[in-house]
């Protein structure tokens, strides 16, 4: 099976890093091909950014030569272009937020979300409403992260995400916490999960759902 | 007051025609400035088209020189880019579907919609869900229209829209029927309204709501 | 165009004051005719009051000589008699809460409400549920106001409303705050809007929506 | 225990007839006192009628001398004045539509409604939405009935109601059918219930719920 | 009339105690027959317990000799087996949580719930969602109770329930507080109701609703 | 990875057959262990059956020796015991209806369901409401199937399912049709998919989601 991972953030280093995680996740089971939106913004953080990224993702896909992948993963959270790409794609399409939520619904009765970016919580609330999952979500916490490229920032992101996870566990008691956003991909593995609670990494969830849909459609 | 009308369809003739209607609607009360998305599709008819138009609308607005309009009307139905543009605009922003629904909610207890295009009904259902207006909408009928530029097509559109309006009036008994879509702008005035029922033209509704919001914010 | 403004509170001084505001809002564009419910309560503040006012409004309208106004504004918040009057009125009918909410939905992604009266918050919640707008409302704060006729009370109302607005801005971060209720009409203009946030006066919103619907139906 | 039954329809013959049914239902267990709204309409059939009846019911209750009933039954369907009366009443208050629905929710998984009057179905839909019971209701059928006082009309009402019940049973397969409206009170007992389906008379449901609430509050 | 009360908790002492309360509630009006689930758990406190109790309740009912009761009360809160038993029972079936909520909906505009057990709040939220009553519920408080058989524990339960009731009254201002759970049956009568607020005992509510449904179906 | 597939229907032949399908689906990637509920009913077809099966599934799991599977698939549709088992299981748990719906939500904008059994449609509606997916489901069609063990019945089931799929495609135009129920497992592969529409087999969907959750949690 072949998966095309398409990053809606115009940040090729982020694409490379997510592709490396995808290859580690799948091993030999799935061949991963990665691509990056040529237009838009380096890191999607608003409705305006989503609109730019959504248009760029559709245009990029239509400009690519015909190829033969079995699934398509839109490697951004939120979900820019997801409905549009799904409408035209001959293969199953996954998004990182949607995949995370659908995994979380199966892993427990209630979930919460930790994500970077001030504007994300309300954008996520709207996606949850669209998905019908609002009542299962106990809360969304934004962690402040400024420059994701610096190692020092990675340490700060980890500390802040851990604090947000611990605070949600204590005050909300979810069964699952989604650690979401392309910028935080992989971070969940470095966090300590509070007792009796699962952490879901949004990139891993999208990789798992892509695998499920490719197997189902195959 | 100055209104910028921005057409998300890349069809300058349609823009001119909607701008003429806007000027007739407002008279001297509002000065209308019109612009057309430079990229995207001539007539938006799918989720894919909406994604392309949404990105193009945001990009166009940001590329325009700073000007001093008091309101912004996104002259397409559905609503490509509406949330994104609203996030960044310093002035009130209206969309044609949303404005039509908000007028209809005030004009009666139940409404229905007639619109061109096979894919529109489900896209509209999703917007109604987002708006919270689903339970007030009794049904959405798509009328088949192929080439909106030809006069003969305009006649066919009128006949089909009238048939759809009459059928909805008889089977659904709404208080209001929205005749929606940039391609049908102005058509409602040429239709016979069934007894006891109001027809709402989606462009007129957007012009009326733009006036309301400019007055409120002014 | 002629608008009939009908105050459901049996308080003619309040009617005069709202009519003066309406005339200032419209200038020459709309002629304003005002009337006051002859029965009911001086200031509507409960479901019981709404039932009395609703019956009185319908009866008053039916007792008036036939006239030729183009729109009808029910100048109370909540909305006593709105659905009933809308059922029988040949011209568009607006209510102050509904108009405020429909404006707020177009001015931002989330709103909140400041209103006088202990019982109003739950009555407003029920109207928002009926309108489908509950999920867009972040909170409703009641400000205590005792005697609206005294100038000193007006100062106190302004101070308390400003405190409530500031508190909502800080804790809820809405895009729009509705300052609602006939008793607070005009107050929003005297308040300082927190940065990045719009204040909506409920009477002005109803005047703006009345204008929109009269233009649309005209 | 003493129950006050207050008819919102200004039709004393209907009040007498419902009071007789109430006395037969309760036997010695409950003493029934009946009263009729002095203002409003003979038979409530619209939102306008509901507004008039709601105001009249509140006014009537407040004008009555203090008495010592243990419960209050608003003997109309729809529910004029229910929330308002409940707000001020020291004793439990029941309404005929609400009581019917709450009984039906306990008697089966899905219900439907047969009721007189062209405007009732949408008014009932709105009450079901308010109650949260919309998804349990499979359909509402209006039966045409013109003059309820004539015996011949009673026969016609029975035939039309039976036809509506049979049609709903065949096409919707509800577990329960509510035969609702003050004008149809008592009619359910004269109808043949389709196999495996219960008929609920709306007056009997309100009598049963009044009994429950008086026992609970006693 | 004869009522079968079937306790889903495998605790015959609890059954006896609830049957005694039922007989006191009904006097001569209803004959009470009581039975206890032979399998399952002594006190239902989780979704797992509900699944065991639900199966045991259905099996018990089907193993009983045919008898001639007129109603069936499932004497547990939550509601194990309710939909299943209702599907097969020829007589009306009530559950303690559902009956409490349906009473509360008629007694006020908003309610809250006090109940023992850490897992109950989210299980109750799910039942409220199923019933459509979520928006009327302001909050659910769990009171910690360990061994219900000890008199000392009864005192502790009363103190903790009173504290929870007082706290909800102060912070949520409900019109009604449901004191729920088989373990707390009868406790509401021993608590002081905050001013202007009714307490509903969940067993009494189920007895009252059973009476209503038996009278309605009889 | 090791998956435990637990059939809630007490039909070991059905278990064997589903296990064979599971092994074919997974190849070497997952080791499949299968078990059958020792109590309950041969084929779950009602809410009563679900209650019996739910209790039996929980009891069976707790009676099994501790083993080391990585996931648990409840091989019945509807979903008996799912929430209960999920509460106590240390490994991810999937159900066939839920997994089908979560796959369908990712494969298109609207889905419909074909399933055997007269009572299933309303039971499924309730699960969709619980999941928040009701508005994405266009319809549920029940196909009449009597004895699933006979080859002739398999042919009849296929013909009836194909007719139901074709009818839904023509009248509802879903993007995805779920062919659901343990009795129909594997049938989707033998059906012709209408153009532009995907068929989802409910067992395959559960196998795919089990794979996703085991990979995610691993």
From TrEMBL, chains A, B, C, D, E, F:
Pfam families found in the cross-reference section: Asp_Glu_race
Alphabetical list of InterPro entries matching this protein: Asp/Glu/hydantoin_racemase, Hydantoin_racemase-like, Iso_Racemase_Enz_sf
Source species, domain of life: Bacteria
Signal peptide: none
Similarity comment: family membership: Belongs to the HyuE racemase family.
Name recorded for this polypeptide: Aspartate/glutamate racemase family protein
Organism the protein comes from: Halomonas koreensis
